[in-house]
Design a protein that fits this description.
mainly alpha
Length: about 170
C-alpha cells in the first residue's frame, strides 16, 4: 500500500475518535456528579477535582492537538521547509513525515479518548483510578514507527543524493 492509501486510512480511523470525544462526554454529562476528577497523578488516582464543565477541556485539547498535527501534515509547510533550506529533502521523505504526523494525530486522539472515557468512569464510581498502562502504550504507539521511517528516509536520502543534480 502506498503512502496516500495509508493517509486515507488514518483519516478514516480518526473520524470515530473525534466523534467519540465530542459525543460521549455530552451524552454522559447529565449522569455525572457536580464534582468530577480533572487531574490524575502517576498512580492514576484523582488528585484534583472540578465542576462538570471541565469534562469538555480534555476532549478540546485532544481535538486541538489533532487539528494542529493535521494542519502541519496538510498545509504544505513540510514542502516549504524542504525548499527553503539547503537540504532539499526527497519527496518520499516529506511523504513519510506527513504520514508520521497523521499517525501521531491518530494516536493522540486515541489517548485523549481513552483518558476521557476513564475519567468519566472514575467520576461515576465505576473505577477508582485511570489505567496505569495508558501513557506507556501511547508512547510506544507514537514511537514504534520511527525506526522504520528513519530507515526509509536514510535510504531515500542516499538514493536522492546519488540521482539529484548537484545544486552547488
Amino acid at each position: 500500500m502506498n503512502i496516500n492509501g495509508l493517509n486515507k486510512i488514518l483519516h478514516l480511523l480518526s473520524i470515530p475518535l473525534v466523534a467519540f470525544l465530542i459525543l460521549y462526554p455530552s451524552w454522559m454529562y447529565g449522569e455525572l456528579p457536580e464534582r468530577i476528577p480533572v487531574h490524575f497523578n502517576l498512580a492514576g488516582e484523582a488528585d484534583r477535582w472540578g465542576g462538570k464543565g471541565h469534562l469538555f477541556v480534555l476532549p478540546g485539547i485532544g481535538i486541538g492537538l489533532y487539528l494542529l498535527l493535521l494542519f502541519l501534515a496538510k498545509s504544505g509547510w513540510l514542502e516549504q521547509q524542504s525548499e527553503d533550506n539547503a537540504t532539499h529533502l526527497p519527496p518520499s521523505m516529506v511523504g513519510y513525515m506527513k504520514l508520521y504526523l497523521l499517525w501521531s494525530s491518530l494516536t493522540t486522539l486515541a489517548l485523549f479518548a481513552t483518558i476521557s472515557f476513564q475519567s468519566i468512569n472514575v467520576a461515576l464510581g465505576v473505577s477508582d483510578t485511570l489505567a496505569a498502562s495508558d501513557l506507556p502504550a501511547y508512547l510506544t504507539a507514537v514511537l514504534l514507527p520511527l525506526p522504520f521511517i528513519i530507515y526509509k528516509n536514510n535510504r531515500d536520502i542516499k538514493r536522492y543524493k546519488t540521482l539529484a543534480p548537484n545544486k552547488d
